[in-house]
Amino acid sequence: KKPVIIDCDPGLDDAIALVLALSEESLDVKCITTSAGNQTPEKTLNNALKVLSFIGKDLEVAQGAGKPILKDLVIAGDIHGESGLGGTELPEATLKKSNRSAIEAIVDILNKSDEKVTIIATGPLTNIGILLVSHPEIKDKIERITLMGGACFGGNKTPAAEFNIYVDPEAANIVFNSGIPIVMCGLDVTSKAQMFKKEINDMRNIGNKVGVMVADILDFYSSTTTPHFLSDGTKEEGPHLHDVCAVAYEIDPTLFITKKCNVVVETSGEYTKGSTVVDYNGVTDRVKNTEVVFDLDRKRFIDMLFNAVKKYNE
Ligand code: BDR
Ligand code: CA
């Protein structure tokens, strides 16, 4: 089993990413840590606890930093709803938050692990940035950081910047400069990881409560993200399962097409702050620090999610 830690900000697609990761036998999820992003730090923590309680997974959930390293927190209530889990009314969590912080939990888990641990990050990179600055020696314990964030082409928060990187560019900059192998599931691939109306209905009809939760989430996500779709309206667009891609990559990287590139983060541009500058054409001799994910086999990806949800039969 591959040991992983998931740092997330649930968040609609984060919640689905958790459903996928926690159903998967090949992953040994050591703990969940939460970042501030899609909603306030209290809400993303509470949402992680609620999702885990609902799907019946008893795992350590540790709260991370309350705000980005330098910037004020920007949230995405317009997309993910007031609660951060729009479209669903999950029961109060039965699981309690860990009594240690995200950083304490990650440091302890990494130090105790015989194997290197992979970090899957699906929110702003604040916790990971702080971890790498406060515990630089811990790098050797990290196998890889597979993250949802950034884009080679075009942003979703600003014309140049994707939301997770935009929220905490300083943290992202630390991560991309760390020397740790990085897999970047940016908008280039995640905008192709769509789920269409019929598939959402089939998800609802799987016959268990997790399928209904995922479908409720996706219906809400469709309603809030439709105005942002790049489509010209001539073909169907479904919600983009951004964060699910990062987990899916760790389960089966053969679903994806990647290219190794140098990636740096713009922390100060007037129009480009928070963008990832991908040297796609290799025009610099900067080190190729990132496996940039560009495409996926959408059908197999959706099948993977269906199989995951089916495992939650009550
Ligand atoms: C990313 O931003 C968040 O709103 C989503 O959860 C995802 O992690 C997409 O840009
Ligand atoms: Ca997220």
From TrEMBL:
Domain of life assignment: Bacteria
Keyword rRNA processing: no
Keywords: Glycosidase, Hydrolase
One of the record's GO molecular function terms: uridine nucleosidase activity
Annotated ranges, domain Inosine/uridine-preferring nucleoside hydrolase: 4-302
SUPFAM superfamilies in alphabetical order: Nucleoside hydrolase
A GO cellular-component term linked to this record: cytosol
Pfam families: IU_nuc_hydro
UniProt keyword tRNA processing present: no
PROSITE patterns, sorted: IUNH
Enzyme Commission numbers on file: 3.2.-.-
PANTHER family: INOSINE-URIDINE PREFERRING NUCLEOSIDE HYDROLASE, URIDINE NUCLEOSIDASE
Descriptive protein name: Non-specific ribonucleoside hydrolase RihC
Organism: Gottschalkia purinilytica (Clostridium purinilyticum)
